[in-house]
Design brief:
The protein is α+β, with helices and mostly antiparallel strands. It folds into 2 domains: about 120 residues, 3-Layer(aba) Sandwich (Aminopeptidase); about 140 residues, Aminopeptidase, CATH 3.40.630.30. Helices cover about 30% and strands about 35% of the residues. Strands 1, 2, 3, 4, 5, 6, 7, 8, 9, 10, 11, 12, 13 and 14 form a 14-stranded mixed beta sheet that branches. A hairpin with a 6-residue loop joins strand 4 and strand 5.
Length: about 280
């Protein structure tokens, strides 16, 4: 009843139509639009056809350390047998991921339509990503301690920044090199913290009109709890204040109590926009 084919350039128009006209679309929160990501997609991506009509698709992100995220999933609004279409797509994507050495896949549930099907696909709830927000009337933090030097990230720093990122986070939450470069391209402010010439942490913020979003804050394990993260956060808040931008949001894991305490000390509060993460062992 359904034919499965790998994503090919000749199918891009059908894929674009599916993604932009269907309600049942899952897009991972990322540094690129779906269109930009598909233009350079080299990871597993499969299409489901009913006759000549594209009725579904699924694509995984670039694997990092035996883990990956489900980047895209979509069903045509008129498609029946949704569970069967998703099962067939996941079988192909999962087989490709196993061949690449991936042991665990994750999905950040942004829209609820997909939740109904996750258990049958082998995905189980893990935890929530929570959002905190800092309003306009919070006082600015003090100056950076003199022993910590904070400067803008340059092109020659990218390997060091990637090393910090991979040291700071578990495999699932690490950025790939491509993701890091994509993130820096859209960053409003990206800075690096050093102490005695050692690169210990970095932050990356985006900006939307009159609000900022702290997209990444990473500190090497040996420097965590020594004020490096706070120095990076305080510094970027002051940099945005010089642009007359005082509001900022940030996401973190519900289980990451240390990061939540840092943000709360700077006036961040939870705003209730929480997203669940689901995991599947392959």
């Amino acid at each position: 009843m359904f034919a499965l084919t790998p994503l090919a350039r000749k199918n891009r128009r059908a894929v674009d139509d599916l993604l932009y006209t269907s309600y049942r679309v899952h897009t991972h929160l990322d540094w690129q639009t779906a269109e930009e990501w598909l233009n350079a997609c080299e990871s597993p991506a499969w299409l489901a056809w009913q006759g000549e009509r594209l009725v579904g698709m699924m694509a995984a992100g670039q694997p990092v350390e035996h883990t990956c995220w489900i980047r895209l999933a979509a069903l045509h609004d008129d498609a029946l047998l949704a569970a069967e279409i998703l099962r067939l797509l996941w079988e192909r994507v999962r087989a490709d991921l196993r061949a690449l050495g991936v042991r665990q896949a994750a999905l950040l549930l942004v829209r609820d339509w997909l939740k109904t099907y996750l258990a049958a696909l082998g995905f189980q709830y893990d935890e929530h990503i929570i959002t905190l927000f800092r309003g306009t009337h919070q006082p600015l933090p003090g100056e950076t301690p003199p022993e910590i030097v904070i400067r803008t990230v340059g092109g020659s720093d990218m390997d060091a920044v990637l090393a910090i990122d991979h040291a700071a986070f578990p495999a699932l939450w690490r950025l790939s090199k491509d993701d890091l470069y994509a993130a820096r391209r859209v960053a409003a402010i990206c800075t690096l913290a050093q102490r005695r010439q050692q690169m210990l942490g970095y932050q990356l913020c985006t900006q939307t009109r009159d609000s900022a979003h702290l997209a990444r804050l990473a500190v090497r394990p040996e420097a965590q709890g020594t004020g490096v993260g706070a120095a990076l956060l305080h510094d970027v808040l002051r940099r945005f204040a010089r642009r007359n931008i005082y509001t900022m949001s940030v996401n973190t894991q519900a289980s990451n109590l240390r990061s939540q305490k840092l943000y709360q000390r700077c006036g961040f509060v939870r705003n209730g926009y929480d997203l669940p993460v689901y995991l599947a062992d392959l």
